[in-house]
């Protein structure tokens, strides 16, 4: 990611009121994680798998603070169980920011499953999402995801793809 | 040692703490053992989510004591949270694991702790949680509750309890969605904050 894209993500998170980020690092967002760690207004929590991160974010919601789950899109699959239970069972929302591995242009065979499964899994969970491939749209898209989730009390997702992450 | 008796003892220590609760029969038991904590307890049916949610709540409200009432099945479902607690060292999180060595709510098939080898407290210590203990008596449970609720570091208490359920107790009628609203309104009231506020007029 370019520094300007990293800055746009952090501006969006701050405008949305996020003060806690749970993450499991990946390669496409590799410049984002240290920037989040270094930001004095954001507490980062490193998790052992993304489902754990989703559940922690759910707990943060209950505290009145705002959290984000930042991950590769493969983490969505690891998060399906807690997302289904919290979102569909209790109306506890999690906002996710994920890198779009496996879209057209992917050059790693192991990432192909991530691209094939991401959108169908989001659809199966009825999670609205936006794929952002233009840097200018990052900040506002993140803000709008929080607007939606804090009115629907349900999950939403932003996937960053294309030249934003490559 | 019966879980219900432990819950009654724990309830005697609680005032303004917030509780995240596991699934199964322990939900109805806690509803009856701690009636003064009903609004301050989130009753959820989420295997593997209980202690992570409690930690998220503890991270968001660092001045408030948070209690996680987890289970052997729930903790084994997501052991990674112990490593996260070991690294993050929350100062306000007390985790109780009801270890009845079975999946009680589906009739009692054994969990991994039933065979005398798997020790959740030892796993917790290995994950960096220094204060992690197993108790088998009500007296020891009560003493550890007092210590765990005052600790300035994560505290995990594994309570070895029988697989029995307290008979003739009142069932809780609300579902997860209603429970969330009750809990959130309680947090809003006691913290003087807004979590689920009004819609815009536009």
UniProtKB/TrEMBL annotation, chain A:
A Pfam family annotated for this UniProt entry: TPP_enzyme_N
Protein name: Sulfopyruvate decarboxylase subunit alpha
Molecular function GO labels: carboxy-lyase activity; thiamine pyrophosphate binding
Domain Thiamine pyrophosphate enzyme N-terminal TPP-binding: 5-97
Gene3D superfamilies referenced in this protein's UniProt entry, alphabetically: 3.40.50.970
Keyword Nucleus assigned: no
Keywords annotated in UniProt: Decarboxylase, Lyase, Pyruvate
From TrEMBL, chain B:
Gene Ontology MF terms: carboxy-lyase activity; thiamine pyrophosphate binding
Flavoprotein is among the record's keywords: no
Gene Ontology biological process: small molecule metabolic process
Keywords (A to Z) from UniProt: Decarboxylase, Lyase
InterPro entries: THDP-binding, TPP_dependent_decarboxylase, TPP_enzyme_TPP-bd
The UniProt record lists the keyword Cytoplasm: no
Domain Thiamine pyrophosphate enzyme TPP-binding: 41-158
Superkingdom per UniProt: Bacteria
Protein name, per record: Thiamine pyrophosphate-dependent enzyme
Organism per entry: Roseibium marinum
């Amino acid at each position: 990611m370019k520094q300007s894209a990293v800055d746009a993500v952090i501006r969006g998170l701050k405008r949305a009121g996020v003060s806690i980020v749970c993450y499991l690092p990946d390669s496409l967002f590799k410049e984002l994680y240290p920037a989040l760690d270094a930001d004095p207004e954001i507490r980062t929590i490193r998790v052992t798998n993304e489902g754990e991160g989703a559940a922690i974010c759910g707990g943060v919601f209950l505290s009145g603070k705002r959290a984000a789950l930042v991950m590769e899109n493969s983490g969505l699959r690891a998060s399906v169980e807690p997302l289904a239970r919290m979102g569909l069972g209790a109306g506890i929302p999690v906002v996710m920011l994920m890198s779009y591995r496996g879209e057209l242009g992917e050059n790693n065979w192991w990432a192909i499953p991530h691209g094939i499964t991401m959108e169908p899994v989001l659809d199966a969970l009825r999670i609205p999402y936006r794929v952002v491939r233009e840097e200018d749209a990052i900040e506002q898209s993140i803000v709008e995801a929080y607007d939606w989730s804090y009115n629907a009390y349900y999950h939403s997702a932003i996937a960053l793809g294309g030249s934003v992450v490559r | 040692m019966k879980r219900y008796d432990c819950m009654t003892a724990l309830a005697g220590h609680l005032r303004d703490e917030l509780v995240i609760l596991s699934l199964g029969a322990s939900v109805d038991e806690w509803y009856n053992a701690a009636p003064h904590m009903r609004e301050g307890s989130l009753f959820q049916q989420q295997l593997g989510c209980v202690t992570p949610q409690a930690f998220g709540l503890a991270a968001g409200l660092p001045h408030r004591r948070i209690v996680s009432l987890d289970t052997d099945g729930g903790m084994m479902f997501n052991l990674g949270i112990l490593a996260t607690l070991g690294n993050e060292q929350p100062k306000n999180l007390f985790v109780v694991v009801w270890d009845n060595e079975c999946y009680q709510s589906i009739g009692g098939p054994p969990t991994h702790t039933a065979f005398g080898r798997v020790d959740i407290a030892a796993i917790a210590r290995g994950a960096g949680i220094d204060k992690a203990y197993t108790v088998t008596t009500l007296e020891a449970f009560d003493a550890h509750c007092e210590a765990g609720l005052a600790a300035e570091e994560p505290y995990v208490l594994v309570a070895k309890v029988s697989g029995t359920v307290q008979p003739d107790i009142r069932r809780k009628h609300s579902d997860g969605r209603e429970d969330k609203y009750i809990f959130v309104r309680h947090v809003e009231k006691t913290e003087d904050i807004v979590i689920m506020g009004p819609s815009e007029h536009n």
